[in-house]
């Protein structure tokens, strides 16, 4: 994931695989099916001596790749790095949102500055009185 601040509202700051799978869109299912079918077709066309074995292997590789692509896209939507209007309406926004205002020193988007999304509950301050 990028180190810059998210451009959209954060739905879940720490999504699990189950959270990502429950937030799949129709486009994600189409990508999953399309990449898998394309990989199987490629394996069938190119696997001359053993077409079905090559096609099945290519399908397994294709569905693994498609799963990674879909999970990465869904995770980016839940974290607020991609457009997530459907997730905000269906799941809701997280209680702690990052400060999305640009600082005066941050005029160039090539040099992002973190605005501090970590709260006290996730990153407590250090207690310097106890050293043991």
TrEMBL record:
Residues 102-132 are annotated as: Disordered. InterPro entries: NADH-Q_oxidrdct_subunit (IPR053229), NADH-UbQ_OxRdtase_su21_N (IPR019721). The chain crosses the membrane at residues 52-71. It comes from the Eukaryota. Residues 122-132 have a biased composition (Basic and acidic residues). Coiled coil: none annotated. Residues 6-83 form the NADH-ubiquinone oxidoreductase 21kDa subunit N-terminal domain. It holds the Pfam family NADH-u_ox-rdase. Keywords: Membrane, Transmembrane, Transmembrane helix. PANTHER family: NADH-UBIQUINONE OXIDOREDUCTASE 21KDA SUBUNIT N-TERMINAL DOMAIN-CONTAINING PROTEIN, OXIDOREDUCTASE 21 KDA SUBUNIT, PUTATIVE (AFU_ORTHOLOGUE AFUA_4G04750)-RELATED. This is NADH-ubiquinone oxidoreductase 21kDa subunit N-terminal domain-containing protein. The lineage of its organism: Eukaryota, Sar, Stramenopiles, Ochrophyta, Bacillariophyta.
